[in-house]
Amino acid sequence: MGRLLRQQKKTVALAESCSGGYIAHMLTEIPGASAYFEGGIIPYHNRHKAGLLDVSEEVLAQKGAVSEETVAQMAEGVRRQFGASIGLSSSGIAGPSGGWAEKPVGTVWIACATEKGVRTKKLQLTADRGLNIRLTGISVLNLLRQELANISE
């Protein structure tokens, strides 16, 4: 991943809610990450999604924090805040509680924003919190890989 980012002269910023900084950890444990990693925000509470990342209060009220619209705005907002080429985001219900019929535990939305637009993806993961955080991190980095390799699903 780092090689592709350096080759393409791209930088990344993160807005992580349900992954709680795990994706930043995954990126920064690679030597040389400072060449492409701008930084991240962990807006766990909705007021920070709105205040720091310009997520619409209306979207949060109508669609909720765990929605395609929210992660798209989070990814765009973090990209702008850090002046990065790419903004990545995650928001979901890691568990083991907090879910309901429409959004059960393990429901996660992720996004990747670039100057070309925003890619989003819904994940339906497990009831295991730690596993959900790890799978979210892997899925976000895979979304980034697809963007860099110009692969569409």
Description:
With about 150 residues, the protein is an alpha/beta fold. The protein has a single domain, classed as CinA-like (Maf protein, Alpha-Beta Complex). It contains 6 helices and 5 strands; from the N terminus they run αβαβαααβββα. A 5-stranded mixed β-sheet has the order 2-1-3-4-5. Helix 2 links the parallel strand 1 and strand 2. It is globular, with a radius of gyration of 14 Å.
Largest sheet composition: 5 strands, mixed
**Overall residue-averaged pLDDT value:** 95
Helical fraction:
40-55%
CATH top level assignment:
Alpha Beta
Radius of gyration: 14 Å
Q: Would you identify the CATH H-level superfamily?
A: CinA-like
Distance from first to last alpha carbon: 18 Å
Number of domains: 1
Q: Approximately how much beta-strand content do the residues carry?
A: 15-25%
Residue stretches low in confidence (pLDDT < 50, at least 5 long) are: none
CATH architecture: Alpha-Beta Complex
The helix/strand class is alpha/beta
Summarize the structure.
By secondary structure, the protein is an alpha/beta fold. It is built from six helices and five strands; from the N terminus they run H-E-H-E-H-H-H-E-E-E-H. It is globular.
Key descriptive features of the protein:
22% strand, alpha/beta, globular, Maf protein, five-stranded mixed beta sheet
Task: Break the fold down into its secondary structure elements and pairings.
Blueprint: H1 2-7, E1 12-16, H2 22-28, E2 37-41, H3 46-53, H4 57-62, H5 68-82, E3 86-92, E4 107-114, E5 117-124, H6 129-148
Parallel strand pairs: 1-2, 1-3
Antiparallel strand pairs: 3-4, 4-5
